Amino acid sequence: MSGFRLPQGGLIDRDRSLRFSFDGKSYRGHPGDTLASALLASGVRLVGRSFKYHRPRGILSAGPEEPNALVELGRGARREPNSRATLVELYDGLIAVSQNRFPSLRFDLMSMNTLLAPLLSAGFYYKTFMWPASFWEKFYEPMIRRAAGLGRAATEPDPDAYENATAFCDVLVIGAGPAGLAAALAAGRSGARVILCEQDRVLGGRLHDDRHPEVGWADRAEAELAALPEVTIMRRTQVFGVYDGGTYAALERVADHLLVPPPGLPRQRLWRIIARRCILAAGAIERPLVFDGNDRPGVMLAGAVRSYINRYGVAPGRRAVVFANNDSALATLADLTRAGVRVAALVDSRPQPGAGAEAAAAAAGAEFLSGAVVCGTSGGQGLRAVTVAGADGARRRISCDLLAISGGWNPSVQLATHHGGRPVWDETIAALVPGATPPGMSVVGAAAGQFTTQTAWSEGAQAGIATAAAGGFAAAPLELPAAPLESTAIVPLWQVAGAGGTAFVDFQNDVTVKDIRLAKQEGFHAVEHLKRYTTLGMATDQGKTSNVNALAIMAGLTGRSIAETGTTLLRPPVQPVAIGALAGQHRGREFRPVRLPPTHRWAEGLGAVFIDAGQWLRAQWYPRPGEDWQASVNREVRAVREKVGICDVTTLGKIDLQGTDVAEFLELVYANGWKNLPVGRARYGLMLREDGFVLDDGTTARLGEQHYVMTTTTVNAGRVMQHLEFCHQVLWPEADVQMISVTDQWAQLAVAGPNSRALLRRIVDPEFDLGNQALPYMGAAAITICGGQKARLFRLSFSGELAYEIAAPARFGDSLARVLMEQGGDLGVTPYGTEALGVLRIEKGHPAGPELNGQTTAHDLGMAKLLSKRKDFIGRAMAARPALTDTARPGLAGFRPVDPAAIIPAGAHLLRQGVAAIAAEDLGWITSAVYSATFGGWIALGMVAGGAARIGETLRAYDPLRGHDIPVTVTAPVFYDAAGERLHG
Amino acid sequence: MRIPCPCCGERGLEEFTYVGDASVRRPQDGGASVDAAWEAYVYLRDNPAGPHRELWYHGAGCRSWLVVTRDTRNHAILDAVRVQGGLP
Q1: B59 and A880 in contact by Cβ < 8 A?
Q2: Which residues, at least 6 apart from A892, have a Cβ–Cβ distance to it below 8 Å?
Q3: Is A718's Cβ below 8 Å from some Cβ in B?
Q4: Does residue A2 carry a pLDDT above 60?
Q5: Domain of A357?
């Protein structure tokens, strides 16, 4: 036998060879190996250094519960720290590096920490690094930060793609061991839709690891399941969380077993599985035994030893001792012998282990020691010998390079606890089994404490039948093979007598029996305190190999039963999940959906710069060669004031309302009156929340007797729609009102400026009179344009100039912009974006988003007269509260800098001159501030205590964050054309 | 969590907006003045541990307002009916 690879056996492809490297050295393995099995086959046992003490560590297990063999996988942007070598499927070209050691695994300077062990015991964080106080920031914290953590995360963006997907089924079976396969088969045959999730590459679970005589059954079951049309097998898929409403989260490792994902495939896929019912068959995890030196490389769980021999064709050593307190470990002796490993001794802690143990030792030619324990190990970086204490107390050394240990089995109950149901202690099997489970979930097999293959099969089949039947699918009984009798006899051994500072309970966080005793001594008896004080169970393995041992030890120390001591609960995820997988395709440009107005391509063609407004992408300005952004905005503002500009305002919410009760409905939702709005007119509307604060504003136009169109702000469109539906369906269901959002259905462009009427006359069909009498300010009409195309025209002005908004069906939005540009060349038509739009409305003193921030009232905004006195409306009562009408509240005003060249920073706070700049003196804040091309200087709107009463005063605009502190004069909020002459005529 | 919309069937939580207690009633006095009834309507809510009748809006679906009976202890949905036709 060369290396440790066995000449035959294992689910590996011996015809193909894979190259990989670990810590810079090259090795070979086979398809079907994990990194761990390939390392063991090559004789590599030292794979890492422990977290706190930097003790040499080896491979403890063969599965996801592995606490020691954490490696850094991959390089560069794909580097993934803390990858469990027992889960990494070997591929050609794999590169792995050990963690938490400097300069190398063999010679780790930080192993000096072992000498400091007395200072580093549990809770040392609370007692050290405190004096002198100044040392914390300069010295202790940076030092601790450098020493903390295990692996290094990649520093470049993740180059791989991830997906999110959803699946539905009648029955979700979690785990494809004997119980899960039986359940899936029984349910699948009934015609129910079944999803079978297995986190491994192969199905069959322990049937392979234990080389079960009926292992062929797993292959036959898999073949039949694959052929059933309503059954989906998801392998390499781990269910990691159970949520409300039958929702399960699962992570599918689509391409982690390849060097890089193939083009078009994601690296991983996050599944949301909606299942009517669920069968949890997640198996069980073996418990280590707790004794001094139990963390040395070469100490391995007995079940893992069997896995490496039977599934991977690897002998984990050449001379072994088996140390156990139960019968399940006995099969290890026969497997070791068959693999050519000499078994020196069976150390059984039970005083009367029974005939099975004696026979197993005899068959392997091993010394049989009953009532004995391993109380120590030796061998610097790999096991060389164990110290055994016999029943009589006498100690002796037995040389060996492999110690297979078994303290019993812990059912994998994690998923069953995600709804808060605590597991219960079953004395007969010395294990925690599921308590109250999430709705619709049943638990079978080892996960339910049913440790024999026979019961796993029969209970699994039963659950499959019952679950299918509950869903209305008639299922037939399953014929199952006969399984040999298996003994589950166990006598708990929570710690070996005398175990102390090197008897590890939590391997990954370096927590020992001594730490648990310290926690008890300091008063932290409760399991929740024990966990947080010692940090056991808080590593990336969530305490899979430590939680039960720990609480049992604490129970012993405090003289309570394990049931009394209780257990902590585990939160999803059950396994670490990459954040990229949670994000799925939602990253970068695809983080959120983007809505494009109908003129987007046209604006792109003009080189517009875009900004996110809610979910929309809106043109901010349209630069011309040689302009910086301020020059572009100034030009656009001047174009609107002097000639004509066009701006896409499609994004503002548009709601179509029809019915005989619409006017009265508007009376309910708006603060101002609507009864007398004639057909062909629009009106400004102010909408409050029921608590009296302003919700939104807009204009509503009456296009027909029973036909109105409401506009909202861009950002509140959805919120207002929800509010209107509430007012209708909940408050006034008898109203004859129908409503629907038409924001996306109509393209709407503002056409603003002295030449706007002239421009529109060139596209509006001649039968529609646009004269001032026919269509006065605030008029609204259905029209046609360009020879019969239906459109709508509203004479509204946000800018304060003669202005309109023209609407056409959205598919014509692009053409509408282009035809206006073509027709308006000699009129000086200019596209303008949201920046110019903002300057214009601030010059005109119109409140918008920054003023309607949800904290302002109608009174604050100078709109108290819009609150109708004759009718009920949403917010009427609460708006009248004295605190909301107090004139000392910040009210809307305008601001100009005393120095005409100064900038007014938006967000600056307002203070009287000469007082301390403290919160108690705060008078308000600047809400909107812009450079105004029209006035050649900065202007601003803001909310200031007393509002209009302060007009003429000089205040201080104070912005310490950005270093501004300037005197400003309070003015009326309307800077431009206060009399409104430009609007009319 | 999944909510069984009477129109659309069982849909994911992300399609809905939650508003709260469905048992509160808007005072019918026209809102002429603020009083204890208005303050209770706008601000005061019970917080029961157990079945709670509450308003949900299916904004990303049929836009129906629903009265859903949900157990606040375990999120079990016991009932969901449309409001249309009046609050029950």
Answers
A1: no
A2: A845, A847, A851, A860, A861, A862, A941, A942, A943, A947, A948, A973
A3: yes
A4: no
A5: 286-365+391-406+488-565
